[in-house]
Specification:
The structure is a homodimer of 170-residue chains. By secondary structure, the first copy, chain A, is mostly helical. Chain A has helices at 15-19, 29-52, 59-70, 78-84, 92-101, 123-143, 149-164; strands at 76-77, 105-109, 117-121. Chain A contains seven helices and three strands; from the N terminus they run αααβααββαα. In chain A, helix 2 crosses helix 6. The longest helix of chain A is centred in the first third of the chain and has 24 residues, at 29-52. Chain A is elongated and about 60 Å long.
DNA sequence: GGAAAACACTTGACACGTCAACCAATGCGG
DNA sequence: CCGCATTGGTTGACGTGTCAAGTGTTTTCC
């Protein structure tokens, strides 16, 4: 026996399918999960950016500053920063150029190995980060507020598992 | 009684913390989940792009073509396409410009409402999509292959729940 | 110790994203 | 039926992302 209305809609149509007004079902659960990840993360990224960018830096620049603050006064080579970025960034040099232009970061060629350029965060960079700590924490929590603590842990584990699949074949 | 080695590492340090070589623990589970989402999705996005971009279109352009194919010959107004995109795109006009320049898409001003511009996918666009269907399906599955079907469903539900939190406050 | 490979960036060219301002067509209230 | 708000889209300016090729250093291995 049929469901209540609409003889046209056999499958209940997943939430994400409705959101992007897709008439046909997904070809696979993998595809639906991938699209849900892309869409959800895009939204979250914009949510975070809307907190960070009004201060005059981008999300990526913020990430660099956080990495340098984490180094606690130790200078980090350019590519080491690139390696630690949450999102990959081939444009790391120019990202640092812009941060240096704003005097949020200082760079110096390394004496021991003159190929490397070491980077430090400047006091004004630390100030900027300090002013963002509260707002960013609040944004993090509010963006994921619909998930319980247990669900957040579950999500983290699932994501870890996805990333496990990507080593081995370069 | 202490764990096996390293008197230095009190917390086990989450997987993502190791990946970005972060010495300090995350300030909250929300933050860790958010960073895991950003990092994981960035990797998946690049994985997908590496399948699509060699054909000469970007992931966003591919998304537009998929939307137009889904319309099955019906012309869609520009902003309707923007609305259906997986990732938000203010640059929809120029995206369509580039697709039109490659003759993958055709546009025409609507007669009933001359403000609107209707878009259709061209045969060469359909061919391009057809040639990508297999590779994209395979990429989808391989990128999420480490998750079981049940885990994929679980992930989709968690992501749906996150997006639920974002209506109401425009 | 000297050529060649590996490394750590840097640069140029170009596509793309983003925001605000703009324009034209339509709808709507008086 | 006339002004004014709304809708639908376009444009300019600018920052950023991305790839490939290039530069200067260090290491490696005869």
């Amino acid at each position: 026996m049929a469901k209540h209305h609409s003889p046209e809609a056999p499958a209940p149509a997943s939430r994400i399918a409705q959101e992007i007004r897709q008439n046909r079902p997904f070809r696979s659960a993998s595809q639906e999960a991938l699209i849900a990840l892309l869409r959800t993360t895009d939204r979250l990224r914009r949510g975070l950016s809307s907190v960070i960018e009004p201060t005059g830096i981008t999300l990526q620049q913020y990430n660099v500053l956080r990495i340098l603050r984490g180094a606690r006064g130790e200078g980090l080579p350019t590519l080491e920063i690139a390696h630690r970025m949450v999102e990959e960034t081939p444009g790391i040099t120019r990202l640092l150029d812009r941060l240096e232009a704003k005097s949020l970061v200082r760079r110096e060629r390394c004496r021991q190995d003159r190929r490397q350029v070491l980077c430090w965060i400047e006091p004004s960079g630390l100030d900027l980060l300090a002013s963002l700590d509260g707002p960013v924490d609040r944004a993090d929590e509010s963006l994921l507020a619909t998930l319980s603590a247990a669900e957040q842990r579950q999500l983290i584990l699932l994501l870890d598992k996805i990333r496990e699949g990507e080593r081995h074949d370069p």
